[in-house]
């Protein structure tokens, strides 16, 4: 009798799967004479087997590890592009980016006998100020610290702050790979030693052009200043400066 009931339960299992609601299970149990809990266990076991074998392809999901790897790959690419864009902007003297470049110039063979060494450290903070959606004001100030030899053959020298040179560039905002700016520049007699500055107030025009390509940033900065005030015992200033750069 037990074997007969067991075979009968397996024969009725497909019908239970097709109608998995409790009322259908109870009805099937009544018709077969098998207790409902026992029939439910058989039905659940068979259902799990069927679901595992027939999982639709559309429901297959990536594992968390593969999702994390894909996310890391995307983030890495965007981070690399952002780093490249930042590197280019850092080489652009009129970029819309606050920066603090340091430039050190060491001049060997300085002086009448060519035996001394002069050193100039320029601290050049760049601060952009948006004036409108189409115009940017970029302030670039050169603050020099100078070591100046005082004799041709001795080891003495003077060290101090030089003349501060603020520059102002009005630069149109554009999506072009060529950016440019025009504006005034000034030289302030801020030197702490007589040999580290000119002792004159000077002013003049300044200009900058920058070309940014996929692999390069190049251009030039130029200005000319004339003195208009300052110490009467110091020489007048008429000074032109051009600084090309290639990165």
Quick one: biggest sheet? 10 strands, antiparallel
Main structural class: alpha+beta
* Unreliable residue runs: 15-20, 41-73
Number of strands: 10
Evaluate the radius of gyration. Answer: 40 Å
Approximate shape: globular
Order of helices and strands: HHHHEEEEEEEEEE
Number of helical stretches of at least 4 residues = 4
Mean pLDDT: 77
* Distance between the ends: 93 Å
Helix fraction?
25-40%
Percent of sequence in beta strands: 35-45%
Task: Write up what this structure looks like.
The longest helix is centred in the first third of the chain and has 27 residues, at about 65-90. Helix 1 (about 1-20) packs antiparallel against helix 2 and helix 1 crosses helix 3 (about 35-55). The protein has helices at about 1-20, 20-30, 35-55, 65-90; strands at about 100-110, 115-125, 125-130, 135-150, 155-160, 165-170, 180-185, 200-210, 215-230, 240-245. Strand 4 and strand 5 form a beta hairpin. With about 250 residues, it is of the alpha+beta class. Strands 1, 2, 3, 4, 5, 6, 7, 8, 9 and 10 form a 10-stranded antiparallel β-sheet that branches.
Summarize the structure.
With 247 residues, this protein is α+β, with helices and mostly antiparallel strands.
Secondary-structure blueprint of this entry?
Blueprint: H1 2-18, H2 22-32, H3 36-53, H4 64-90, E1 102-110, E2 116-123, E3 126-130, E4 135-149, E5 157-161, E6 165-172, E7 178-187, E8 200-212, E9 217-230, E10 238-246
Antiparallel strand pairs: 1-2, 2-4, 3-4, 4-5, 4-6, 6-7, 7-8, 8-9, 9-10
Helix pairs in contact: 1-2, 1-3
């Amino acid at each position: 009798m037990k074997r007969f009931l067991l075979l009968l339960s397996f024969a009725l299992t497909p019908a239970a799967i097709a109608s998995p609601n409790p009322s259908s299970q109870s009805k099937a149990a009544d018709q077969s004479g098998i207790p409902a809990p026992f029939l439910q266990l058989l039905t659940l076991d068979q259902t799990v087997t069927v679901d595992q074998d027939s999982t639709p392809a559309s429901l297959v999901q990536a594992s968390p590890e593969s999702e994390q790897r894909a996310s890391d790959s995307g983030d890495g690419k965007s981070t690399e592009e952002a780093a490249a864009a930042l590197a280019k902007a850092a080489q652009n003297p009129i970029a819309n980016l606050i920066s603090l470049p340091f430039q050190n110039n060491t001049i060997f063979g300085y002086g009448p006998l060519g035996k001394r060494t002069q050193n100039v450290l320029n601290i050049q903070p760049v601060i952009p100020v948006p004036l409108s959606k189409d115009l940017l004001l970029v302030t670039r100030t050169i603050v020099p610290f100078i070591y100046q030899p005082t004799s041709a053959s001795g080891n003495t020298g003077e060290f101090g702050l030089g003349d501060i040179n603020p520059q102002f560039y009005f630069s149109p905002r554009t999506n072009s790979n060529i950016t440019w700016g025009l504006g005034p520049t000034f030289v302030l007699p801020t030197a702490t030693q007589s040999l580290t500055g000119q002792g004159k107030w000077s002013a003049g025009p300044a200009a900058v052009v920058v070309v940014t390509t996929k692999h390069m940033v190049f251009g030039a900065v130029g200005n000319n200043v004339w003195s208009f005030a300052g110490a009467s015992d110091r020489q007048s200033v008429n000074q032109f400066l051009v600084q090309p750069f290639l990165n």
